[in-house]
Specification:
This protein is about 40% helix and about 20% strand. With about 300 residues, it is of the alpha/beta class. Strands 1, 2, 3, 4, 5, 6, 7, 8 and 9 form a nine-stranded mixed sheet that branches. The two termini are about 40 Å apart. The mean pLDDT is about 95.
């Protein structure tokens, strides 16, 4: 029997959470022993899980809202499974997904050397069936979209790994920095097999244009933090365009948040990177902020997947 833990961070999505849990419970078979760990990030809405009586469900409510990274770390600390999977509360596992993924890992050569494996979601893509991911392949978007991590718990813990957390950007996420670090230390075996269906019916998704606009200041800080992180860990030389790209991203979000001087500072530091784009953004700093927000909204609706 293979012991599996599934960690589901949740915040104010009680009905969607039930769908996510059901998709985990349906994965059970005579090969897998599955526990579900629900980490409630201090929801203001009541969460009732009575319908899952008899299932192995651990419910942990955090005393204050700290964001999904803290909730994920709490879930890993509570997990007892050999393998820990993460599931967002508005998504769901595809039928037989966990069994199929675990069977691939168990057949993988030298699997003991890797703390994390990636499997695609329905919006995740790599150019081959399998890749060994490095930071460069995250930076140059060889790895595109969302992937579900399967964590080898003992290897993860013995190397003092965790989801990196930055309190100043709660609500926008910084998960990519965790994968930059882990892929630089170990590389991440990554498979194109889709195991999670990404849904779009949550009222306020992290990747919704409404959230990008509402939290635009925090998204600008996220870009700045990423630049600092890559430079601190000497990862900025692996793929030099990443620094200019992140600074341009910071300029855009500062523009949307109405912080035009901060926008101009970031633009000046990347004035030779994508000159047409930087010129347009510079022009927008002289127009009312409502125009920038409108254009940003149109762009996100048109090009976001």
């Amino acid at each position: 029997m293979i012991n599996i833990s599934v960690v589901i961070p949740t915040y104010n999505r009680p009905e969607l959470l039930k769908r996510a849990i059901k998709s985990v419970v349906q994965q059970k078979n005579n090969q897998l022993s599955i526990e579900v760990i629900v980490v409630d990030d201090c929801s203001t809405q009541s969460i009732r899980l009575d319908e899952f009586d008899g299932e192995r469900i651990i419910y942990k409510r955090l005393l204050q809202n700290g964001g999904p990274q803290i909730a994920r770390n709490e879930g890993i600390a509570l997990a007892t499974g050999d393998w820990v999977l993460m599931l967002d509360d508005d998504d769901e596992f595809i039928q037989n997904a966990i069994t199929n993924a675990i069977n691939i890992i168990l057949k993988f050569d030298n699997k003991e050397a890797f703390p994390v494996f990636f499997f695609a979601t329905t919006i995740g893509k790599i150019p081959d069936d399998y890749l060994l991911i490095t930071p460069k392949q995250i930076m140059d978007e060889t790895l595109r979209g969302d992937f579900t991590p399967i964590i080898q718990r003992e290897k993860f813990i013995e190397n003092n790994l965790r989801y990196l957390d930055y309190p100043e950007i709660v609500g926008v996420g910084c998960e990519q920095l965790t994968w930059f670090l882990i892929s630089s230390l170990f590389q991440i075996p990554t498979f194109s097999l889709q195991i999670v269906k990404v849904n779009a019916d949550a009222p306020f998704r992290l990747t919704s244009y409404q959230n990008f606009i509402y939290n635009s200041h925090k998204f600008a800080l996220q870009q700045d933090i990423t630049v600092q992180f890559l430079q601190q860990h000497k990862l900025d030389t692996i793929y030099p365009p990443i620094i200019a790209k992140k600074k341009l991203g910071a300029a855009i979000y500062y523009l949307v948040s109405g912080e035009k001087e901060m926008c101009k500072e970031r633009l000046f530091s990347v004035k030779n990177y994508r000159p047409f784009a930087t010129s347009v953004i510079a022009f927008l700093t002289y127009l009312p902020n409502s125009i920038s927000k409108f254009l940003f909204r149109v762009y996100k609706i048109r090009f976001s997947k």
